[in-house]
């Protein structure tokens, strides 16, 4: 790293940190009025409110970092342009892309930090902040007693469908169990029953008024009472706690999606959250192109316009990102595609402005 790179990198990091601290303070101030209401209403003590603010910091950091990178990069390069340093470097034959190489690299590293905070720290902090605000323990989650239209696929290629399952009474109504071959392509057996009770001692279902259709032997048999040791998935396997995806790590969300798929649940929300986890952190890297390019030219009186334009573009990113996120939540777009469309759009804008800054 040359002295020029060290000089530019130091200025960029300094501008970024100043912008980050400013934005974090603004967001904390916006939360203070709400926290004061919690204290006056007796929902929080003063010490709990301080802890609550600490738990909010990861979320605030994630949300404001792209704006801090955008404003920090603009301030850094604009200061150099106002001192005629950019023009001097260009005149000496150094391209603008070479000048801003290390700020862009640093922005990418910042994006990786945001990715880790979003994956590891934010879920835990969000869960604790919500628990503190609600006045409950994190572990206090109510498991549903019953579930309608319950699906479950087992490792033995059995597919369960139960119209209504009750985990307290260990019962089910209108059961249908389908057994498929090893390749999961052909149906070998279908068992239907009007009702059933799960025997905890034998760890198997006891079905009433059951009909067993065997497609291999081409037979059909009716039973007043039917049981089989392979039918070992009890009501508790059908009813599980589906945590808020925002409070889970990426690995936990992926596992939750697999579990929900097996039980036939809706996976649009966790998929949308996971898609955002892999796209939003890189907004910091993408908007750095805009800030560096817009701050490259010094025209007297134009600094305010550049700052206003960059902040406007920064907030427009959030609007576009939220719009495509809504489409993914509603199942109209693949969550990973919808998460990266805003990134691609603003990356193209950044590259365009970067090319314009060369001249």
Automatic annotation (TrEMBL):
GO CC list: ATP-binding cassette (ABC) transporter complex
Listed GO biological process terms: lipopolysaccharide transport
Topological type in the membrane: Multi-pass membrane protein
Principal cellular location given in the protein's record: membrane
Spans traversing the lipid bilayer: 12-33, 53-78, 99-118, 278-295, 302-320, 332-354
Source organism, top-level taxon: Bacteria
One Pfam family linked to the record: LptF_LptG
Alphabetical keyword list: Cell membrane, Membrane, Transmembrane, Transmembrane helix
InterPro entries in the cross-refs: LptG/LptF_permease
Location relative to the cell: Cell membrane
Protein name: Permease, YjgP/YjgQ family
